[in-house]
Write a structure and sequence with these properties.
By secondary structure, the chain is mainly α. The chain contains 2 helices and no strands. 54% of the residues lie in helices and 0% in strands.
């Protein structure tokens, strides 16, 4: 049986300011990382089989 999901804690003070800044200023992703992610995505897509039974 699944465990209940706990509520997300509320951030206050400096933690809240750091989180808001991180959301507004995401770290740039290199083109190499994007290319690597696309390769992995294509590999998973090629082996995925979804039978929806239609």
């Amino acid at each position: 049986m699944a465990r209940p999901i706990k509520e997300t804690p509320t951030l206050y003070g400096e933690d809240a300011r750091r989180f808001a800044y991180a959301v507004e200023h995401p770290k740039p992703v290199s083109s190499e990382d994007i290319q690597r992610a696309n390769i992995v995505y294509e590999q998973f897509k090629s082996i995925a089989k979804f039978d929806l039974g239609w």
